[in-house]
UniProtKB/TrEMBL annotation:
It comes from Micromonospora rosaria. It holds the Pfam family ABC_tran. Keywords: ATP-binding, Nucleotide-binding, Transport. SMART domains: AAA. InterPro entries: AAA+_ATPase, ABC_transporter-like_ATP-bd, ABC_transporter-like_CS, P-loop_NTPase. Residues 5-236 form the ABC transporter domain. Belongs to the ABC transporter superfamily. Gene3D superfamilies: P-loop containing nucleotide triphosphate hydrolases. This is ABC transporter. One of its GO terms (molecular function) is ATP hydrolysis activity.
Amino acid sequence: MSPVIEISGLRKAFRSLRQGRRVAVDGFDMRVEAGQVHGFLGPNGSGKTTTLRALLGLVRADAGEMTVLGARAPAELPRVAGRVGAIVESPQFFGNFTGYRTLRLLALAGGVPTDRVDRALELVGLRDRGDERVRGYSLGMRQRLAVASALLKDPELLILDEPANGLDPAGIREMRDLTRSLAETGVTVLVSSHILAEIQLICDHVTIISAGRRVAAGRVDDVLAGFDRHEFRVRVAEPERAAELLRAAGLPVGAYPDHLVVGGSGDPELIARTLGEQGLWVHELTPLRPDLESVFLELTGGPAHPAVPRQVDDAQAGDRVIELEATGAEDSGRVDA
């Protein structure tokens, strides 16, 4: 089965009188398979929004090949546009229109049955607020309305750029539940977000971009496993003595005010036995597993903390992704004239 989204060698540069030529995306690759909830991560200015805009034909790429649902982008996008729902950046709505009227007009313009409007409002939690004018909506409510507009088509592919922007914790949880429920019905979801904990909760695959280039891709668990140092947090009554014993056993030990970090061993029994044989009983022995935030910061570290070159297997595509040296490319999120 061909991928729902495939990007190969995407390159895009912008020119402006003020900043000159800027490379926003530099040889970027991405592959999204059917049925995935795929996270698209990168720091501000990394090229995320430019990539999505190029994929949807909103900006013209300088080089590279892209397909969406098997159609070449942007030339063949009209053929599959009715099967794709997308929000990129923050869509603008007429403030004097109600939420219901806004979606009804969008449905009519897109040739979508208007009976889907109520369902879309219900899915995003705006069913009871649909008769209110959009100018009275909060930022989070406008974001929900934007997601509702993307759902009008009953899409096979849903592309969401920062869908949790402006949402309170309850709204973020509702958006998470919505994304999961859509995935369970077979919708492929590509979601870009800076809320890394949410991405880890809802996504099964991830692509990380830095300075316009892909630095990691694959199943979330596989990407995290590539950064597991097999360290443990250890708490004992005599930490200084415990550190000496563990170092004598050949284990690297880091000392902190209230605990030790012991590395070099995937076997917690070795740590417990080394200390227990000397009468030191362990109060805590917790594996320190990497989360998506720590991996993201390591891969996309700034000049003061350069990212460590690593290799991460892309289990789905079978290739290897190698972090490349930063180029200083930026993604401003807008097209320069």
